[in-house]
Fold each of these.
Amino acid sequence: MTETMVVEVENLQKFVTQMFGEHSGSNMGTTDAAVEQMTQWLKQFSNVEGRVECIAREDLEQVVATLSFDQSELWQAIFPLPEQWVQHFATPIEQVHTLIDPYLQEVYQAAFDQYIQLFGATSLTKFMTVQTMALMAYVAASYFANQRAFYEPIVQLYEAGHMIIGIKGNTLYVS
Amino acid sequence: MNNVIDVLVVGAGPVGMTAALAARKEGLSCTIVEAEPQDRVRAGSRAIYIHKETLKLLEEVSEGLGFRLARNGVIWPIKRTLYRGKEVYVRNYGITNNKDSKQLPHFTSLHQREIEKYLYEACVEAGVSFIWGEPVEKLDIREEGVTVTSENGESWEAKYIIGADGARSKVREEAGLKLEGPRTNDTFLVVDVKDDDEDPMPLERIFHYHHPAMGKRNVMLVPFKGGVRVDLQLLPDDRLEDYVSEEAVKEWIPLVMPEKYAERITWVSSYRFHQVVVDEFTDAHRRIILAGEAAHLFAPFGARGLNSGVPDAVIALRGIRKAENSETNDERRRAIEQAATERRIAALWNRDGSTTALNHLQGASEEMEMKRELAASLVSIVPTLGRWLDEGPYGPKFGPPELTTKY
């Protein structure tokens, strides 16, 4: 493994540690600066009138059941980003592919361990684990493309004890 | 019984003819009775894809047949999957020499019409007798054999019957066996077009999720020798007549392939797929064995129709051979039961695989829709998601351990 790759592995691991540390999920449903920052985050999608809704722990299941990308301009704006970012990777794409698999395995372990504590052996744990793996793939891709405005607010949101639940229309649900 | 045929096959389709070849290979006398005349025009779009495992079985029952089919089919070297027009997966296997006389290719693609032509020639060569234009009406099934009577009053005595008479099997009905399982809600259109020898379509299998020119409809293009098959998956609210009539097909075909193909349409069918398997592959006297569509109907994704019908036929004849060698009736019955049980396990597995593929394609649930959307978006950074999108329409690749064949 090259020196650059070692640094990148460490940085990716740092995201996982930061986001799924001791405060993980501790502020679900409360609105604070990290949540408010996500409204700002949405503004990077210039043609989308997005909004953030913070939902309580007890409403999670109900909201998850309604999530949908259908008719979502927000999702249409996010969809092509990885392909665009890849053009700006400083790291060769083959190396990124090599790093992604073990990184997502770590995400899986960390996210599942957290969600099983929060939600028990429920379908919510399954959904949130898979959803978080996808989200963390975006975090990694934006990191490799040096898109700080994309990944930093997400990392900070999780670090502050919140989580992203998903999208319905142009609403981003966080908890 | 005088003039008793060892094996009487009902149905002269590819599965029936495979059963006949397997019977001759086992040294058994065999006659095929077919309801339609020999020069019949077969309804439906039919099979176009033969897996290597099927070629191997055909080679086993008739030396040279597997290689002959391979030589006369095409092998597309490239498969490509697109999602809303974005390429999410491509694999180039390189050119396969389908003329290789020592090694069978991993598949061959030719129209069932052609497949049947080569099977028929092999059957004639192997000494199989054909009786055309005799729809079977009645079966008198006894512990010691079967009397088959046609609508025209002809009758034949046989030790064993292979029911390869398709979805509306008379043999199945007479044996008191029933197909069980659901029917899918989505409608698919299958259009065959004749290729242009001067300027053919690229030899690529292309699958479009949500084809950009076809709204949210999925489209698959599969080459076969001399043509291309176009599968169009309609949406739940689509009116079939808006897509299936000759004029309608001529309107949408140019949206998915070069315009000239609108004038080269050879076949159009619409389907709602059954996902059904017969409750038992054999009757109470263990004298009947069902094979192919008489025993199971699946959606075509994963090419499990003919590719499971051929092993049905081969395993059935292995069972009959074993039964013929047995010393007691109990032993005979067990030999038939064993073959029938193995093929039912295979059919259930194939149905599940095909159902998995259908769920992947239809994606009526928001959950599946999101799963596919995320995979298509993230494929640049997680290429294995592209492979998942590509393989999804085919379902699982390998069967359960009970099977002695792949499908």
Note: The CA atoms of residues 129 and 377 of chain B lie 57 Å apart.
Amino acid sequence: MDSMYYGDTLIVDLDAGTTEEVDFVEADEAGPGLAAGLALYEKYKDADPIIFGSGLFTGTPVPAACLGFVLGKSPVTDELAVAPLNLFAGSEMKLSGFSMVVVKGTSPKPAYLWLHDGVADVHDASAFAGMDTWDTTDAIRREMGESMIQVISIGPAGEAGSKLAAFSINYWGSGDTAAIGALMGSRNLKAVALRGLGMLDADDPAEFYTRSLELFASARKDSGFAALCTALGTGDLDKWLEPIAHRARACFACPSACFPFVKYNEAPTVMESSDVEEPGMLLTSPAAALWLMDGGWEPEAASRALEAMAREGLDMVRGARELAGMPLTDPGEIASAVKALEGSAEAAWPSGEPTPAGLFGAWTPPLADADAWKLANMAGYVLGVCPTYLMLSEVDLEALAGLCQPAAGVEMEIGSLADLFG
Amino acid sequence: MRVKVNPLQCTGCGLCELACGYHWDEAFSLISSSVMLYRAEEKKNYMGVIVKTEEDLFIGRPEGAAAIKLGELSKGGGGGASAKPILIREACDLCESTTGEPQCVAICPHGALYLE
């Protein structure tokens, strides 16, 4: 089970502040990625754990193989829910040497988990208590002397147990719509820091690499933020952001670049590294931006609001929905309105609908019918490939699943995916 | 012939590093590549790509791209404190053991790397 670190699992006991590596042999039967995560949750159910995991291909040159996940019981729905680890968080976790991390217990004081190069430690995070996610990310990177550590952290909202809380990946928020951030806060888990310089071996590397390149070649080439907006039926969103748009950024190994960076503290035309340390925001939630655009917000003010939500550790989608009808422009008023969201537990998504229950919840608005979106989520979370990319690129899912054999000697068919989820 | 960088086309996906690492190790990692994605100034959205050759580093920064002789470098390239310094990595061999263009050029989805 050495290929792709398949089965390599870490058990973290926050009560005792200890870690233990185990070989999760049941992964052979359960399946990879989220399927293994669900089996691990079942195995350790008495501890109601939080599970940080990666898919079988996460960290490899399969198109959009950036995806990891956080699985836990949502404080909003009291059901198991999963939230995505995209950008470089999923791949960095995989390359840190652990395929799955099961976090049990509650730390007696704020703590953060540091995973790097096959080593895991629980660190005191008392000094970071009350910090927002930007300061927490900077503080951990400073403490470890490494600017490329990926930090999954919670802000004041998660520490306070707000049902609008979400964890953030570095500075940019996340697709956590299930208040996993509040779940982390309830365990005194301030952050998980990741840095991995490991090496992923495939069973048949040449076959795996060649067939991965064939998937790139077969995928639609017009994915990216503009294509995403078109597919969502929101063609104006990219035009709305254009006056402050800098450069779009992609997640790890993704040929698409869905996330526009916007600059509002310096001219968006500035390309060099200037003295302005915090020039803007990477917009990782088109759905949140859409709520604000439709609510009559100006793009700069909307981006400041989304930055404030990411800093506080708030779910940007539900937060934006709350603020959509009250367009603000003054930065101080925006900050106050966002801070006040921490007390709101009533926000729903989409407007007028109850907060979606079920394992996948709502990460981005559906790009097709509900069944296709669910299938993309199942395939994505098992294999470690972004579901949004799967929808946009029209990658052949059977060909994608066929990579399991050269990757790790695992047979998988898309038609039997649902079986892995019971 | 050498691999050059068109830095403003780069979206920071890191596929070039993975492809080059595969060329050297037949495995997937970010430590042995002759190509390094510079992403240490994340809050500024400042990204670039560095390619190591026997003689120089071709550094593609958003403000421009140029080759700098190894002896003229003041620093070893900013991959982050734990990254294997690019100066002690293998030099680009244009993937001489494979047919076709270098792996990093072939896999880049946006033409940020090219052969000239």
Note: Chain B has one domain: 3-115.
